[in-house]
Structures are given as C-alpha cells and as structure tokens.
C-alpha cells in the first residue's frame, strides 16, 4: 500500500505539489478567519458582526464581476498554452486589462448604490474598506499560477501577509466601535499578497508588458462568459446573497447568527476547493489527450471525495453544539440549529463540484453548467424569502439545503447525459 502511494505521488508529482500548495492557500482563507472569528464575534457582538458580514456580502457581488469567468477560462487557456511564452503573456495581459475595466465599472455602480440608500450611506467607511479587497483580488492572479501548475511559489506570500494582518486584528480591534477596521485589515492583507505575487510573476515567468490586440481581448472576454454567468448565478444562491437578503428581511443580529454558522459550514465545505483547483487544469488537459482516462479519474474522485465529505457532514451534525459554543460563544446559541440543518452541505457541494466543475467545466461544456446554476438561482431566491418569513433564520438554512440538493442532482444528471451522448 505504501509503495502504491509513493508511485502515485511520483507519477503525479506536479498535481500533488499543486494540491499541497492549494490546500495551504485555501486553508489560509479559512484558518486565519477562523482564528479571528471567536475573538471578533465576542468583541463585536451579533449586531456589529452581522453588519460587517452584510457589507462583505454586497462587495461579494462586485468580486464576482471582477473575477468574471477567468478562474476557469483563463486557467484552461494558460494550462494549454503555458509552453508558449508569447501566448502566455498575451493571455495574462488581456485578462488583467479586462479585470481593470470591470473594476472601474464596479466602482461606479458600487458608489451609486451605497450613496443612494441611507442604510448604506451611514456606514460609508465600512463599505469602502470592504470594497478595497477587490483591488487585492485583482492583483492576486491565482488563475495564472493554477494554469501554470506552479502554485507553490505564491503560498509563502499569502502566509506571511495574512498572518501579519491576522495579528493586527487582535491588536487593533478592542471594542464593538472598531468594527469598521475589520474589513480594512482584511483588504490590506489581500492587497499586499497580490502585489507580491505580481512582482513574482513578472520576474520569474518573464511575462511581457504588451498591449494585446482587440481580437485577443474580445476572445478572452467571450471565453469567460459562460463561466461568469455560472459564477454569478451560483452567487445568487450561496453565502453572499443569503447574507444580503437576510440583512434586508431581518436585522443585523439575525445576520450575525446566520453568518457565524455559515462561516463554520463554509470552512469545512472549503476543504474541497484546493482539490478542485489542483485537479481542474489537470483534467482539462487530460480530457483532450485521453477521454477514457479522464473519466476514470472523475470516478475515483466521486467515491473518494464523496466518502470523506459525507463523514465531514455527519460530524458537523453530531457536534454542532460544542462547535458553536467553542468558536462563537454562548451568545450565538441560535446558530446551533442552523449548523445542524446545513450540515449536509459539504457532501452536496462536493458532489456538485465533481460532476459540475470537474465534469462539465473541465470537459468543455460550461453552457450546460450555466443552465443548472441559473435554474438553481431562480428556485432559491423566492424559496429563501418564503422560508425566511415562515421560519426565520432556520428557514433560511433550509432553503440553502434545498437549493444545493437541486444543484447536485442536476449536475449528476447533466454529466451522465453528456457521457451517454459522447459514448464514453
């Protein structure tokens, strides 16, 4: 067994290295917030913590816009063209130009929204500090490193920057009145990581500062469209919209209870992300080279990941009470029932990822995935509003579970139908 594992690692050394790096990178996005979470929820209280979550939820929509679909389309293009330095530079510069233009558009819309509503305008510094994270997100091109399958090079930047700004949270946030500095510190950590990664890219990957042709920019824009549509509609039934709608339907305190529980659930669900991000470029190339081999790879993922994340879901359900008391504190007891209702999400989202991202996306049929996510969003929003009005935050949690169940089933059916048509 040990020899088999050694041979497997040696055979897929690059894939394994990327998985480890992405695990660390993804882990940082969940571990550092989880380190500060017990402190912040206690210092800020449910109301102010809920307010920071509400601001982050609004900014999340603009994060989707500036990410566009490049986390998938550009990864695939870089993975295929990475041996060609000129082509790689063209793709990189095209994507970055589009991202900057989308940022400027987002800034105009964001300011229009915040300045138009009294509820937002009175918390203008909070929303502006939250929006700064988008600059760091643009400057931190994870998609490029994924496509090059060289994730290990940027992990260290993230560790140092986020560790530093996590420490600052404990030094700066001393009372509920310091809540506006929470998004500022978070944004500064992302910006520093992003600037370091850009410097590294230009120095080590020999990316040229060139002006791509209009045709190349258009190609990248159109290439990311279906992925953007998918990401946008996924966002309409995931945490950003849930938190945002809850803030409109209830109050900041209810948002605090729900957001605290959802952050814990998403931390465990996020364990699938490094596996997904490491496997996706590998599968994209493998499907072009050998369809049968790529299908066998997905089947292994199905059984292995399905079993692991089913165990994760069961653990969340059984230990919801001690998890909430330890991480969130006694003030957040309403979050226990939310975690129990949403405990199945790690398993459901893992199955959606295997058949959706690794199946439909990697196999080049993103249009099918877009239809699934559009259907899910139209189902989710009215269901979320109805169940929230009937059962408060427990109804909100139930709506999330029903929607993710629908997505998992549709991804499975669409993928199996694709295999049948292709006779793979």
Q: Can you summarize the main beta sheet?
A: none
Secondary-structure-derived class: mainly alpha
Order of helices and strands: HHHHHHHHHHHHHHHHHHHH
Distance between the termini: 30 Å
Q: What proportion of the residues is helical, as a percent range?
A: over 70%
The coarse silhouette is globular
Beta content = under 5%
Radius of gyration: 21 Å
Describe what this molecule looks like in 3D:
This protein has 424 residues and is mostly helical. It folds into 2 domains: 13-214, no CATH class; 224-424, no CATH class. Helix content is 86%, strand content 0%. The chain has helices spanning 2-11, 13-67, 73-81, 85-116, 118-121, 124-131, 133-139, 142-148, 152-172, 181-204, 214-223, 225-235, 239-249, 252-269, 272-289, 291-318, 320-327, 335-342, 345-361, 366-422. It starts with a helix and ends with a helix.
